[in-house]
Design brief:
This protein has 96 residues and is an alpha+beta fold. The chain is built from two helices and five strands, in the order αβββαββ.
Length: 96
């Protein structure tokens, strides 16, 4: 209970539309990226407590989100996977 109370006391609401540097990936971004196999995925970077893979919301601390952070459309970034490093390309960044 104390843990949750402290989390609520320090929580800050972030409006993704008011983020600075909207051409880069930061907290709150919805990012579409292409994988090497040609498939595309769209995810939204959210807080740890909001993460829900069924809704394509991933924690900003996850390996995928960390690979995407600060990237811009057209950038190719390395992502660590269990089978090694995979290159992913940023296709679109949206803040809603």
């Amino acid at each position: 209970m104390r843990y949750l109370t402290r989390r609520l006391d320090s929580a800050v609401v972030v409006d993704p539309r008011k983020q600075q540097g909207l051409s880069q990936v930061f907290f709150g971004a919805t990012v579409t990226y292409a994988k090497a196999d040609g498939g595309e995925r769209t995810v939204t970077l959210v807080g740890v407590d909001e993460a829900d893979l069924s809704q394509r919301k991933i924690s900003w601390l996850s390996p995928v989100a960390q690979a995407l952070m600060k990237a811009r459309v057209g950038d190719t970034v390395p992502q660590r996977t269990p089978s090694g490093i995979e290159e992913i390309e940023i296709v679109a960044i949206l803040y809603r």
